[in-house]
Amino acid sequence: MLLRCVCITDPKLNFLPTDRRAEWILFPAAVSGGPHRIVSLDATFRRAFTLGQRPQVAQLQVRAARRLELKINGAPISIASHRNWNWKKVTKIDIAQFLHGGSNLIEARVFNDSAPPAFWLTLSADQFRLQTGPDWEAVFTGSAWRQVVLASDPRFFARHGCVTDSFLLFMSLPCSAAAVFFG
Question: How many CB atoms lie within 10 A of CB 35?
Fold first, then answer.
């Protein structure tokens, strides 16, 4: 039980807390899971959606492993950027002023220096609902746009001594499974 609590709350650990409101998403290709202290890995996640009219109320709930730059329709959205920001806790933001009737676009650039970048989001705008899932796309450090994968989907272990998909598999385990894994 203590290990589960630490996994869920400690921002230094690369465990993604599960939450039924949305899925953690990742870029689909294998990325070296080891530390990258010289340069931070970044992936940009995006999703277009259409609203019938500008919403009166729109609340965004977001998490990103580890650092996030967020844009709605090209406008930068302020995210808690102070040193004590815990990426595992949901950040709530009122974004109604950035949305409009018609086509809208959410872009999230996620940086991580110790694991593949991961992103989680829910949006409630009047009667409209959106969450991260397999219908999002991502680009990783200059690659082509690709459909994301869910962090919770099983991944296969890598060969040739690389820590790639095996790291993603371990990273995507729910904390309760990680507790079982550690015995």
Answer: 9
Q: In what order do the strands lie in the sheet with 41-51?
A: 75-77, 67-72, 102-112, 41-51, 137-140, 146-147
pTM (predicted TM-score): 0.80
**Residue 107 dihedral angles phi and psi, to the nearest 5°:** -125, 130
CA distance 106 to 49: 8
Q: Give the pLDDT confidence score for residue 60 in this predicted structure.
A: 97
Low-confidence ranges of the chain (pLDDT < 50): 36, 82, 157-158, 160-183
Q: What is the CATH number of domain 2-181?
A: 2.60.120.260
Residue 172 has φ and ψ, to the nearest 5°, of -90, -5
Distance of CA 25 to the CA centre of its chain: 5
Distance, in Å, from the CA atom of 67 to the CA atom of 81, rounded to the nearest integer, reads 8
